[in-house]
Amino acid sequence: MEIKTGYLYHIKDEYFGVVNDENLMQNHEKGKKKPTYFTIKDKDILWFIPISSKVDKYQRIIDNKIEKYGFCNTIIIRKIADEDAAILLQNAFPTLEKYIDHVHTVDGVPLKVSTGLQNEIKSLFKNMVGLKKRGTNLFFSDIDSLKNQMLKEIK
Questions:
Q1: Cβ(63)–Cβ(47) under 8 Å?
Q2: d(C-alpha 139, C-alpha 145), whole Å
Q3: In sequence order, what E strands does the chain have?
Q4: By three-state DSSP, how is residue 128 classified?
């Protein structure tokens, strides 16, 4: 399977056992495989950004952050496949192709996020990584440790 930036994928349960990070969103919820992940391919590393259908829940969090800080760029709500979705940049994490279970499809067709939304997500993600490098960590998981673990698996 060729993994491409801008598509949505599902991850294997195996990944969560390997990394053992309690700050990651878990794969199963009430018997469903969730969430789907927007994927950014960065050489051998894939960055997974969870997509949630719980828009009301995340809208409240966004509203609280805007009230407190004046803005929120760690969670955004946008249309994906004509439905509102919460894009949880704060929950992003690195993984490898071998941990991908399957591409997310709609009517049998792989779901690709619009180019404009892809660019917005990549820009916000890049900004968050830059902030982390300068000492402001907005990620829930330890992305540096997880990335190092994934890079060790490649060797």
A1: no
A2: 12
A3: 8-11, 28-29, 32-33, 36-42, 45-52, 75-80, 83-88, 93-95, 100-103, 105-106, 109-110
A4: helix
Phi/psi of residue 144, each to 5°? Answer: -65, -45
| Residue 49: alpha-carbon gap to chain centroid | 1
Angle (CA) 138 141 147, round 5°: 105
CA-wise closest residue to 86 among 25, 13, 44: 25
pLDDT tens per residue across span 98-142: 999 999 998 889 999 999 999 999 999 999 999 999 999 999 999
Look at residue 96 and give its three-state secondary structure: coil
Measured between alpha carbons, how far is 91 from 140 in angstroms, rounded to an integer?
Answer: 6
Helix, strand, coil proportions of the chain in percent (round to 5)?
Answer: 40, 30, 30
